[in-house]
Every structure is written in C-alpha cells, then in structure tokens.
Amino acid sequence: xxxxxxxxxxxxxxxxxxxxxxxxxxxxxxxxxxxxxxxxxxxxxxxxxxxxxxxxxxxxxxxxxxxxxxxxxxxxxxxxxxxxxxxxxxxxxxxxxxxxxxxxxxxxxxxxxxxxxxxx
Length: 120
Prior knowledge:
This protein has one domain (2-116). Helices cover 36% and strands 12% of the residues. The chain contains five helices and three strands, in the order ααβββααα. The radius of gyration is 14 Å and the shape is globular.
C-alpha cells in the first residue's frame, strides 16, 4: 500500500506486467524477467522473501519498493542493463542497477536503510 501511495500514477501505469512471489529466507528480494526466453516480453517476476517479516515496516517498504524500482527501470531485461536518455537526465547515470534502483526509491519518498547505503 505504501508503495502505491508514493509512486507517481504515470510510473505505475508504465510498469510491465509483474508477478510477485515470496519464499527464500536468505534473499530479501529479486526482480527478473518473467519469460526470459520471450524476447518480446517485458513482463517481470518479483520475488519477496518471507524473511522480510522479521524486519521493520520501513525496511520492508524499502525492499518492496526497491524491487518495483528495478521493474520500473526495466532492469530485468537484458538490453536494459544500461540506462535510457530520460533516466540519465533524472540522475540515474553511472551507477549499477542496484544503486539506480535505490535512487529511484529515494525519489519516490522512501528512506534507504543504513545497511543499504552505497557509494555513489
């Protein structure tokens, strides 16, 4: 709910089809292409770990938003491992996909947990 309240409607309307699944306790989350063999699809699969339940609500909100940021930035697509011109203008240039997702989540109004702070 927090994610949808903070992400701009135009961003939500542009998200690919997303399937969310949650079970590996050793991984907080992951965003991958839903149909890796289908080069025409931009569908995403978001995995959320049950171990998230052991963390604060702020940490959970951040982790969920972070995975949706990967989907919004289309990081799950092989050809999008680099950033578009529009993303460059918004300041997502020069960082790996994890840092770019963190930046977008910050833009949505979430606070990056101290354990996740990355060098920029």
